[in-house]
Write a structure and sequence with these properties.
Elements (H helix, E strand, L loop, with lengths): L1 H20 L4 H23 L10 H24 L2 H7 L3 H11 L7 H22 L6 H21 L8 H19 L1 H6 L6 H29 L1 H8 L1 H14 L5 H18 L9
Helix pairs in contact: 1-4, 1-10, 1-12, 2-3, 2-8, 2-10, 3-7, 3-8, 4-7, 4-12, 5-7, 6-7, 6-13, 10-11
Length: 286
């Protein structure tokens, strides 16, 4: 499930980049995509469970999840609109570090000296990626900043969403969170959707349907089921493959340039993650 999630997420960056380059405005794309995904999840939850009921005590968490996901998608589409997909993919490698930082803020994780060293190494890698991207025609510092914000907001969304999976199915939570997120996206995207030229070729519409069903609907279920089964730490280790796969696919499919600084930055981000996850070896008990 995790490997399928990683591949679909990685492919989504190149697919979204193509859609945006072909004339679909960032918020117009997000509005259509999340409207379709929300409808699918509502139909799925009602068909399987027959209800969308969420306890009143969890509504605040649902609202926070919708808000963080809205911020994530706004940052995501504008980052890809301004920056190369390979650059955004590498920056998403910082998600585990941001997840650890949010865990510290919520007091679900403890800070060790190893973690702070790992965080410093990873963010040094982010700085290298930014420096490397700044010299490319296809990138901008604003896009790089939005790519970093995409990683941070996805980490926040995962931290907020995960506790809800202990009580509800992923389909039911998504059937409530995604429509709320869609409302926020649709309202913020009114100027773009109003002026959007919708006379797009069938190929772009096919890519948009794929970007909705595969990297959004299917991965949303697989990702959080994986977290529930094996835990966030182990799931994140496999998800660390996504930045590398996304960068490689963008270079192959979109012929995007990838500079030495960006490669070194990606290696530094990965090194920081390995350092943060490493545990001292202990003697195995009989």
């Amino acid at each position: 499930m995790l490997l399928a999630t990683v591949l679909l997420w990685a492919l989504n960056l190149s697919v979204t980049k193509v859609i945006l380059d072909e004339g679909l405005a960032p918020l117009s794309y997000a509005t259509v995509r999340y409207g379709l995904a929300a409808a699918i999840f509502v139909a799925l939850a009602l068909a399987v469970e027959g209800t969308l009921r969420i306890a009143r005590g969890h509504l605040r968490l649902v609202a926070l999840a919708a808000a963080t996901l809205w911020l994530n998608q706004v940052c995501f589409v504008f980052a890809l609109d301004l920056t190369a997909a390979s650059t955004v993919g590498i920056l998403l490698g910082a998600i585990p570090v941001f997840t650890g930082l949010f865990g510290l803020l919520l007091r679900t994780e403890r800070a060790s000296g190893r973690f702070w060293i790992a965080a410093a190494v990873s963010f040094a890698g982010v700085a290298l990626v930014a420096l490397g991207a700044a010299g490319e025609v296809s990138a901008s510092l604003t896009g790089v900043a939005l790519g970093i914000a995409t990683a941070a907001t996805w980490a926040a969304y995962s931290v907020v969403f995960a506790p809800l999976t202990k009580t509800y199915s992923v389909a039911r939570i998504s059937a409530v969170v995604l429509p709320c997120t869609w409302v926020l996206i649709a309202l913020s995207g009114i100027p773009q959707t109003r002026d959007q030229d919708w006379s797009l070729g069938w190929e772009i519409w096919a890519l948009l349907v794929f970007a909705t069903i595969g990297p959004l609907v299917v991965t949303n279920i697989l990702w959080f089921r994986s977290i529930r089964r094996i835990g966030a730490n182990r799931a994140t280790l496999v998800a660390n493959l996504e930045p590398f796969v996304a960068a490689v696919l963008a270079v192959i499919l979109l012929s995007e340039p990838l500079g030495v600084l960006q490669v070194l930055g990606g290696l530094a981000i990965a090194g920081g993650i390995v350092l943060a996850r490493r545990r001292p070896s202990r003697a195995q008990s009989p």
